[in-house]
Specification:
The complex is a heterodimer of chains A (265) and B (157).
Chain A: E1 5-7, H1 12-20, E2 25-28, H2 34-39, E3 47-50, E4 60-63, E5 66-70, H3 75-80, H4 82-87, H5 89-95, H6 101-106, H7 109-115, H8 122-128, E6 132-135, E7 139-141, H9 142-145, E8 146-148, E9 151-152, E10 160-166, E11 170-177, E12 184-193, E13 196-202, E14 209-210, H10 212-220, H11 245-263
Chain B: E1 3-9, E2 12-18, H1 24-31, E3 50-53, E4 56-59, E5 72-74, H2 87-94, H3 104-117, H4 123-129, H5 140-156
Parallel strand pairs in B: 1-5
Antiparallel strand pairs in B: 1-2, 3-4, 3-5
Helix pairs in contact in B: 2-5
The chains are: A alpha+beta (265), B alpha+beta (157).
Chain lengths: 265, 157
């Protein structure tokens, strides 16, 4: 790692000030992407502003059909939360399938979505559930939050504070994990809510996206057989040593069918 | 540039001035001379460096010592008391749960976190939990048996 200064503010105002006053300050959440990246010297920072000491960023609450999760809530806390399990079991299931138990004990929802790894699981849940990302300066719909590979709508010094998820009628997430890294080669989050069916795909493209043609047929009939004749185009999809674009396109329909079956219980 | 870190390691208060870049695993191994915690892959995949921070298993190669400031840390060295092995350690010994032993400290600290959240884990639950712990002697079968026996022995204490 290149050298940096470590700071642990106790409030969001203090954190924002520290970021503003630094040359090239980075926010440190769970650190499970940032630290490995710093260790490989793929990134550097003048200051790491650790959000671990800010109480208001932690915890889960639900009211009026919306579950709100603080940015510094870990994956294992979301997976084990009875509130999340009752309201949106698919979300608890997704959180419990990220990485491994030790990664889930440190990794946070705010860190995951701010990083926006193209193969991360959480972006699919946010877009699939039509969630809202709350930050230190505004609220952004998930559809507008994830803007590209490792890119989000967050501005300089803007910090994610929580994510609000409307409770769907039913939902499920299925992924085809890379056997070594456990990142999703393709993951599909399917949700049936008051505004219809949403299908969010992660791992396949540069960033999470909605499979609109699949949403259209699932709005006609919410069953795996509705997807049978859909052939997703492989244009623009990721291609690497793990899977070709064509294979990823095929996996989108396969994971969608499994997710729909799972959602229908 | 340095930062002061204070934490409780295996029940003992420790404090030191460290470079902010110091990883928790290096703080434990180099500063505290607790070399039971190993560094395997150094990329948060193999789990040889698993320790408990505030009662939860984490990979200490992917955490700064500064992040553990104020925390309670437990390493493999905290388990045996006066030469008496912890029931989980004894179970690994009895069930041939190790060959070279490199992954064992991480396996045991990970297993103890599992028993904390699930005192009677099934074979499947143990195998799923070990997702983040690699053994390159291909000893998983006996490791799973060891953890099952260890969990059972712990519930009898």
């Amino acid at each position: 790692m290149y050298s940096f200064d470590y700071k642990r503010p106790s409030s969001l105002d203090e954190a924002t000030q520290m970021l503003r006053n630094s040359d090239d300050g980075h926010v440190l959440a769970g650190g499970h992407t940032l630290l490995p990246t710093l260790k490989q010297r793929l990134a550097s920072a003048s200051d790491l502003v650790d959000l671990a000491g800010i109480e208001e960023l932690k915890g889960i609450s639900s009211a009026d059909g919306v579950v709100t999760i603080g940015a510094m809530t870990t994956h294992s806390e979301v997976a084990a939360s009875s509130e999340v399990q009752n309201a949106i079991p698919a979300l608890a299931d997704l959180a419990g399938g990220i990485g491994d138990p030790q990664v889930r004990n440190k990794g946070t929802i705010g860190g995951s979505i701010s990083n926006n790894d193209p193969a991360a699981d959480y972006p699919a849940a946010l877009v699939g559930l039509n969630a809202t990302v709350n930050t230190t300066s505004r609220s952004i719909s998930a559809d507008n939050f994830f803007t590209g590979m490792f890119e989000t709508a967050l501005g300089d010094g803007e910090i994610v504070t929580s994510v609000s998820f409307p409770v769907p009628h039913s939902a499920a997430y299925c992924k085809f994990p890379n056997p070594a890294s456990r990142y999703a080669i393709v993951g599909v989050f399917v949700a049936r809510g008051s505004d219809g069916v949403r299908v969010a795909v992660t791992g396949a493209g540069a960033s999470v996206f909605r499979a609109r043609e699949i949403e259209a047929v699932l709005n006609q009939g919410f069953s795996a057989s509705s997807v049978a004749d859909i052939q997703v185009s492989d244009e623009g999809l990721n291609e690497d040593i793990h899977a070709s674009a064509e294979y990823r396109a095929h996996l989108i329909t396969v994971m969608t069918k499994r997710a729909v079956d799972k959602a229908n219980g | 540039m340095s930062v002061t870190v204070s934490m409780i390691v295996n029940g003992k208060s420790v404090s030191a001035e460290v470079d902010p870049r110091t990883l928790l695993v290096d703080f434990l191994r180099v500063d505290q001379r607790l070399t039971g915690t190993h560094v395997g892959c150094d990329t948060s995949q193999c789990g040889a460096c698993v320790v408990h921070v505030n009662g939860k298993s984490v990979k200490s190669c992917t955490m700064l010592a500064a992040q553990a400031d104020g925390a309670e840390v437990a390493t493999i060295e905290s388990l045996a008391i006066d030469g008496q092995l912890h029931p989980m350690q004894e179970a690994f010994r009895q069930n041939h749960g190790l060959q070279c032993g490199f992954c064992t400290p991480g396996m045991i600290m990970s297993a103890l976190d599992l028993v904390n959240v699930n005192s009677n884990p099934s074979e499947r639950e143990i195998r799923e939990w070990l997702e983040g712990n690699l053994c390159r002697c291909t000893g998983y079968h006996n490791i799973v048996k060891s953890i099952q026996a260890g969990a059972e022995a712990m519930s009898e204490v």
